[in-house]
Structures are given as C-alpha cells and as structure tokens.
C-alpha cells in the first residue's frame, strides 16, 4: 500500500516503511520525506544558509504571511525554501506550526540538501534546487479517516462533484484555495478543502489537485469517510465534520484549536443546520 520510495538502505528503510503504515492508521504527524542517499548530503555552507532561514528569515522576511518562499546564500550552496499554512489560520497559529515543522525537519532530515515535512496543518520544504513556481507531485502522502459510508456509490459521486468544483475554483483564487460543502443526507454534510502553494500557475495548481483527487479515488480508499492528500505543491482534505474556520458565519460554533492548530473533532450534531 506504500507509495513512497525511500532510498535508505537495509534495516533503516524497513523501519521507516513499517512506521509509515502505522502513521497512516493512527494519523500521526509529522510526515517527512528526505531520502538519505549519499547524494543528498549538504555542504557546511549549505547548512549555514539553511540555519539562517530556519532561525527566522523564512518566516520573518515577509512577516505574518500564511505562505512564503525565499532563499539564502549563493550558488552552489544556495538554499531554496518555502512554507504554507492552511488558509483559515491566524498568523500566530501559522507561525507556531511552522516553528514546530522546522524543529521536526531539522531532527528528521538533518544534513540533507533536500527535504519536505508536513504537520497536520502546515508544510515546510527546502532544496538545493529552485523549485519555486514549479509543479512538484512527489512525494504524495495521505491519511484516511476510517468509518463506514452508508451509500458508497452516492458518496463517490458527491466526492467527484466536490473535487470537480474545487479543481475549478481553487486555481483561480489569488490565494489558491477553495472550500466546498455538500449535503450527503439529511444528517450528514461533507466539508472539503483544496489549497495550492501560491507561486503555482493556474494550470499547475489544477494539475496538482487532479493528482490529489486521483489518490482519493484509488481503490485503497473505498469506504473511508474522510481523508487528506499531501503533495509538495498542494493539499486536500475532506471530512464529515467542519475542520476549517469559515469567516463571518453568524452563529457558527467554530471548531476548537488544539495548541498545534489542529482541530478537535466535534460531534457531528454540532454542525447540523439549525
Ligand atoms: C540523487 O541521485 C538520484 C539518482 O541518480 C537522482 O535522481 C536525484 O536527483 C539525486 N538527488 C540529489 C539530491 O542530488
Ligand atoms: C518566490 O517565488 C516567486 C515565484 O517563483 C519568485 O518570483 C520570488 O522571487 C520568490 N521570492 C523570493 C524572496 O525568492
Ligand atoms: C545535526 O547534525 C550535526 C552534525 O552532524 C549535529 O552537530 C547536530 O547536533 C545535529 N542536529 C540535530 C537537531 O540532530
Ligand atoms: C462498520 O461496519 C461494520 C460491518 O457492518 C461494523 O462491524 C462496524 O462496527 C462498523 N464501524 C463503524 C465505525 O460504524
Ligand atoms: C467524475 O467526474 C468526471 C468529470 O466530470 C467524469 O468524467 C467522471 O466520469 C466522473 N467519475 C465518476 C466515477 O463519477
Ligand atoms: C443541506 O441540509 C440542510 C439541513 O437539512 C438544509 O437546511 C440545506 O438547505 C441543505 N442544503 C442544500 C444545498 O440542499
């Protein structure tokens, strides 16, 4: 079931693969990807540049932005880096998530010249190559929310309509995200979100979201009532509960934030329309 290609050797690779399977089951973040082959070793100068980015520059250069990309150093040791938070985050929550992701990526990918790491609601990435404005579809990571779907065929159709809409609208939004809500029964509502990195073109954002939807419709996913697909250029999520904040919804109870910015699952009844 793994779609990840690890270049690690021997027992290290096996360990990684096993833990990946359990991560998917338990939805434990962070997910990181930093192949540990010998050609992914960073120079000392590269590490210094990366430290500059991670010790403030990456988040602070623009300041209070929900996504940003910047570089440090000169070729051949220049580091290209970006981060992205979910569209509905406050700057404080975003910064918190980015700081944790930086800590995680330094722990898990120390010394590599290319890596990407996802926490539940933000992503941090760096590389020796210029990936800005470039569609990047590898790796694809995912986590499903297990649960029985009463009418799987109808659910698949609604997912299809949902993603057709998201794939159409998110790329055209200057902030490159869209949400979609549909009734799937008198009692259940499907909440969905798609977001690309802002530097992508309309076409590339659309291509990334299509790749994400292909993962959603893969055979292994049938019967899952929610899920996330994480790709360096975009991410999607859909659930039977509202996991994002919708601005200006009068009377909405609003989801609670955990310290990390991940939402606590409310009981569904809280979200039934009055
Ligand atoms: C490492 O080598 C592989 C195979 O030759 C190549 O595809 C990859 O881009 C290289 N990675 C780096 C970080 O140079
Ligand atoms: C961020 O990416 C955009 C799009 O490729 C690029 O034009 C811009 O120069 C980058 N920003 C920085 C600070 O490097
Ligand atoms: C990263 O590696 C360097 C050099 O091997 C080491 O000094 C440093 O403590 C490591 N950092 C972390 C967070 O593991
Ligand atoms: C899903 O359906 C199976 C078989 O009908 C049942 O055993 C299981 O308890 C159900 N799980 C949930 C979460 O409703
Ligand atoms: C999903 O939507 C696409 C585009 O509208 C359509 O071509 C396709 O047949 C649909 N797939 C399913 C399984 O309904
Ligand atoms: C969705 O369901 C709610 C509650 O049953 C209802 O008020 C609302 O009109 C429905 N929306 C659509 C688009 O059918």
TrEMBL record:
Gene3D superfamilies, per the entry: Gnk2 domain, C-X8-C-X2-C motif (3.30.430.20)
Entry superkingdom: Eukaryota
InterPro entries noted in UniProt: GNK2 (IPR002902), GNK2_sf (IPR038408)
Leader peptide range in chain numbering: 1-26
Keywords: Repeat, Signal
Domain Gnk2-homologous residues, every copy: 28-131, 137-243
Entries under PANTHER family matching the protein: CYSTEINE-RICH REPEAT SECRETORY PROTEIN (PTHR32099), CYSTEINE-RICH REPEAT SECRETORY PROTEIN 38-LIKE (PTHR32099:SF36)
Name of the molecule in the record: Gnk2-homologous domain-containing protein
Organism annotation: Acer yangbiense
